[in-house]
Amino acid sequence: MTLAGAAPQWAMAQAQASPQDLQAAWTDGTRALREGRPADAVPHLRRIAESGQATPPVWVALAMAHKALGQSDAKLAALQRALSGDPRDLRALLMTADHHAETGDTRAASAYYDAVVKVAVANGSVEPALQAEVGRAQHMRERYAADYEAHLVRTLGDLSGPEARRVRGSLDLLLGKTELYLQQPKNFYFPELPNIHYAPRADFPWLDKIEAATDDIRAELMTILEEDAGFSPYVEAEPNRPFFDDHGMLGNPNWSAFYIWKGGTLIAENAARCPATVEALKDAPLCRIPGRTPSVLFSLLRPGAHIQPHHGFTNARYICHLPLIVPSDCAMRVGSDTRPWVEGQACVFDDSIEHEAWNRNADRLRVVMIFDVWRPELSETERRLVADILQAVDTYR
């Protein structure tokens, strides 16, 4: 690594050293370094350090001299002084990372290489003399991350079983392979509910009846599509409320809905066209909040449509999907978990966690049946009180 950049700016002269003396010491010291005379560089740079005027570049230069002389402890001490003056000094971070790599402290080395990359990204640009070094730091960070993961996997053994699902999730977070996504409902948050992206399907045995009716439900959907569609844009502006259409979905038919229940009310005309669907849902613990839920609908996503990341209105419920028409290149991401839909296989997720969906198929619709159910952790009393709270909100004028 070469020493480049602007020369240090000296403060007011100390009694023992004028700014001119310090500048001369810097010039002589860095010249000696460039000429491969580290032993000659040390006294000049040490003179600046002893004056109390040393800046991070001076300490880095001194560390480079000690490195060339094989003086490991003195090198590390100089680097620590550089980083105490500027914790984001890239040269000091790089040299400290290399020091720990050379001494076999891989955890410390990994932490400093990681810091190099993060500082470089935060700066937005890196001076040409350091670009290759930052690239090397990135490579070393990746190598150590792979070694670290391999060590943990060897130590922990087999984690493939369903009972280790949450352990695997914690390990992915620890390794930085996934991000942490938390419940962030737009309107109403119920505390102390588990932060679950996709809920385990086995926890909802009542879904068996709904899945078994997939063919009949799909047949009703196809009749609706063939007769008159009956779909309208899913995102509609609410009267007398501000609405910011950040994602271009307001009034957009690319994401459309055919409602059987809407805002807690059965749409009698539509329900009459879907008797098998209504029957299949009889045993589902639908989330019932008068004026708000349940909502039961066929959700249509046209070719090329992308529902941008967003959050639902409350974490007190789960959203269920029964996939009915699913072409290739369709999927949904909930938090850090991305899954394709599979026709006839229901999924349950928390829509208060950031989620998005897309249909990248060139010419086929994607249609799922959507309905909302109470979170099973809520008692009957809690469900009633949540409904009462939201009804009280709605009656305020």
TrEMBL record:
Secretion signal span: none
Domain Aspartyl/asparaginy/proline hydroxylase: 212-376
Keyword presence, Repeat: no
One Pfam family in the UniProt entry: Asp_Arg_Hydrox
Keywords: Dioxygenase, Oxidoreductase
Gene3D superfamilies: B-lactam Antibiotic, Isopenicillin N Synthase, Chain, Tetratricopeptide repeat domain
InterPro entries xref list: Asp/Arg/Pro-Hydrxlase, Asp/Asn_beta-hydroxylase, IPNS-like_sf, TPR-like_helical_dom_sf
Family the entry assigns: Belongs to the aspartyl/asparaginyl beta-hydroxylase family.
Name the UniProt record assigns to this protein: Aspartyl/asparaginyl beta-hydroxylase domain-containing protein
Lineage: Bacteria, Pseudomonadati, Pseudomonadota, Alphaproteobacteria, Caulobacterales
